[in-house]
Every structure is written in C-alpha cells, then in structure tokens.
C-alpha cells in the first residue's frame, strides 16, 4: 500500500472542500481499502466522511429517502423498508457477509468497482484501470463477465446486488458538489463502458452522493430479488433478477424488471417489461416474457451460458413474485 494523507472533516462543507482538492471519499471502506492494498487505487488523500449526518431513512414528499451513509444492515432491517420493498431487503441481505453489511454504506455499494480479476491484477491489461492498455478479459477467461452493455474496450460486470433492485424501483441518486445539488436516475448515473471504461459513473469532481430516493409506487406492489451464484455462501452473482409488479383487477398495470451479473451496469429488461404490461399473470406469460430477456446479448467464449441462465432466472422470479393461475 502506498503512503497517503488522511482527513476527517467536521461537516459536509469541509468534506466537499477536501473533495474538490482531489481527496477520495471513504466511509465503510469495504471496497476502496482492498483496492489500495492491491495497489489498484492509489489516492493521495482519503477524506473520511463516516461522521457526516447522511445516514437517515425516512419518507418524504418525493418518496423513500435513504441516506448515502446508511449501513446496508440497517437499511435491510428498517421496518418501513421491509414492509414496502422486499426486493430491496433481499438484495441487501444477499449482497455480502453479515460483517460487511454492518460496515458497508449505501453510497459505497453503488460506487463499488468491478470484481473482474484482470482489473484487480495490476500486471494485466485493463482499459478501466489504465486506458488504452487493452482488455485481457476479451481473450482471457471470461466466464463471469458481461453479455449485455459490453464494448470492445471492456466486458466487466457491475458487482452490486443493491443497484439491480434500485434500478427496478426507478431510484434516483442525490448528489452534492461544488456546483450545488442535483439528481440523476440510477440507470443514467452508472455508465456503460463504451470507449471510456474508466468513466464508471456520472460523478463530477468533488461531488458526493448524499442519498438515494425511491419514488412512490402504486399499491399494491409485489417485489422480490433472486440471485444465482456458484455457491450459496458469500459470492457474486452469475445472474440476478429484481422484479417489481403492480397488479389490480388481475392485470399487470406496471412492470419493472432488472438484471445483475450479466451487464456492465444493472440492466433494465425493457422488452420483458413491455411484454408483461397489460397482461394477466400466467405461466405462459412468464415463459413468453422470459424469452426476450437476453435480447441484444453478446456472449463471450466462456459465458454463453448466461443468456439461457438469465431467461430461466427471469421466468422463475416472475412466477415467484407474480404467481400463476
């Protein structure tokens, strides 16, 4: 690990000032510290924001607001979250070990970096780590890599379970920086690699995530999260699916479906949503909707199985959340 400076600001204004000078924000540190230890990240200054008052979970006129510094375990245990958004709770509880969930924050989870082994191996070519150096995963062992949203520059998946649920809930990210406050839809905040895989999110210099907001959804709302992985203990997803359905009169009025483990970002399955909307739940509908789940997929040498796995996972989770007649 390389030498670095450390500061712990007393308030948000001081934190923003330190961030504007090039400091890297840290709270739980469950991702950044590992990357520093592996010399993938070499920040000159760490700005400890763990003491800032950004850990609230509350209802507002805009919906449910979750502070960026709220711990994953605390959000998963929050009575209001458990009652209204099972998909969010399940994504959090399946995301990591209990020890990590007690440390990791919501904002940090959104900003966590890929688990691609080539990204974390400083001797390997990686455009995300060193732009222009190439992508070793393209011709290497790519079983865990993306089949959706990839480019010739990068095929790494986004590792977060939480962001898949947030994508299905139409969540927005609240930001604060030198130019003031703004908000960005989560699905626009996390960026596909294109030709600039080193740009992973729409976070401007010195900006800080202050909260995530989930807008009001029509009720009754059914939701759930399913994660498929190589082992049931702590492991990243081969694929995962978040389903959010609003049904009245036996008809699906609104459908939101997102997938993880298969995309360079949490991937909204728009074709699946269109197939579901306005229809009555049935096993046949779930099968038909799942058939279009992998539209646009570009499998690599070792991960072609993910296309079929995604379809089966979507069908299973639609059946679980939506039921059948």
TrEMBL record:
<dbReference type="InterPro" id="IPR016169">
    <property type="entry name" value="FAD-bd_PCMH_sub2"/>
</dbReference>
<protein>
    <submittedName>
        <fullName>Xanthine dehydrogenase family protein subunit M</fullName>
    </submittedName>
</protein>
<dbReference type="InterPro" id="IPR005107">
    <property type="entry name" value="CO_DH_flav_C"/>
</dbReference>
<dbReference type="InterPro" id="IPR036318">
    <property type="entry name" value="FAD-bd_PCMH-like_sf"/>
</dbReference>
<dbReference type="InterPro" id="IPR051312">
    <property type="entry name" value="Diverse_Substr_Oxidored"/>
</dbReference>
<dbReference type="InterPro" id="IPR002346">
    <property type="entry name" value="Mopterin_DH_FAD-bd"/>
</dbReference>
<dbReference type="GO" id="GO:0071949">
    <property type="term" value="F:FAD binding"/>
</dbReference>
<dbReference type="Pfam" id="PF00941">
    <property type="entry name" value="FAD_binding_5"/>
</dbReference>
<dbReference type="Pfam" id="PF03450">
    <property type="entry name" value="CO_deh_flav_C"/>
</dbReference>
<dbReference type="InterPro" id="IPR016167">
    <property type="entry name" value="FAD-bd_PCMH_sub1"/>
</dbReference>
<feature type="domain" description="FAD-binding PCMH-type">
    <location>
        <begin position="1"/>
        <end position="219"/>
    </location>
</feature>
<keyword id="KW-0560">Oxidoreductase</keyword>
<dbReference type="GO" id="GO:0016491">
    <property type="term" value="F:oxidoreductase activity"/>
</dbReference>
<dbReference type="InterPro" id="IPR016166">
    <property type="entry name" value="FAD-bd_PCMH"/>
</dbReference>
<dbReference type="InterPro" id="IPR036683">
    <property type="entry name" value="CO_DH_flav_C_dom_sf"/>
</dbReference>
């Amino acid at each position: 690990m390389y030498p670095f400076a450390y500061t712990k600001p007393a308030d948000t204004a001081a934190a923003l000032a330190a961030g504007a000078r090039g400091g890297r924000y840290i709270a739980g540190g469950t991702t950044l510290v590992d990357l520093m230890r592996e010399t993938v990240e070499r920040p000159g200054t760490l700005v400890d924001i763990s003491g800032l008052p950004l850990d609230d979970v509350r209802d507002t006129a805009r919906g449910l607001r979750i502070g960026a510094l709220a711990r994953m375990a605390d959000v998963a245990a929050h009575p209001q979250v458990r009652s209204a958004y099972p998909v969010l709770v399940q994504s959090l509880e399946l995301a990591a070990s209990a020890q990590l969930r007690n440390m990791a924050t919501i904002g940090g989870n959104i900003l966590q970096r890929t688990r691609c082994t080539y990204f974390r191996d400083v001797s390997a070519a990686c455009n995300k780590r060193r732009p222009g150096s190439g992508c070793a995963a393209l011709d290497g062992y790519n079983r865990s890599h993306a089949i959706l949203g990839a480019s010739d520059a990068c095929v790494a998946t986004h590792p977060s379970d939480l962001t898949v649920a947030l994508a299905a809930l139409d969540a927005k990210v609240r930001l604060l920086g030198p130019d003031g406050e703004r908000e960005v839809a989560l699905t626009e905040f996390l960026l596909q690699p294109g030709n600039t895989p080193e740009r992973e999110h729409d976070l401007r210099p010195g900006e800080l995530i202050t909260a995530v907001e989930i807008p009001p959804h029509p009720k009754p709302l059914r939701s759930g999260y399913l994660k498929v992985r190589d082992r049931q203990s702590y492991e990243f997803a081969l694929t995962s699916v978040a389903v959010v359905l609003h049904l009245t009169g036996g008809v699906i009025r609104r459908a939101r479906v997102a997938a993880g483990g298969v995309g360079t970002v949490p991937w909204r399955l728009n074709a699946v949503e269109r197939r579901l909307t306005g229809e009555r739940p049935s096993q046949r509908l779930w099968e038909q909707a799942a058939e279009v789940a992998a539209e646009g997929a570009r499998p690599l040498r070792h991960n072609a199985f993910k296309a079929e796995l995604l379809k089966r996972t979507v069908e299973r989770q639609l059946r679980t959340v939506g039921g059948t007649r």
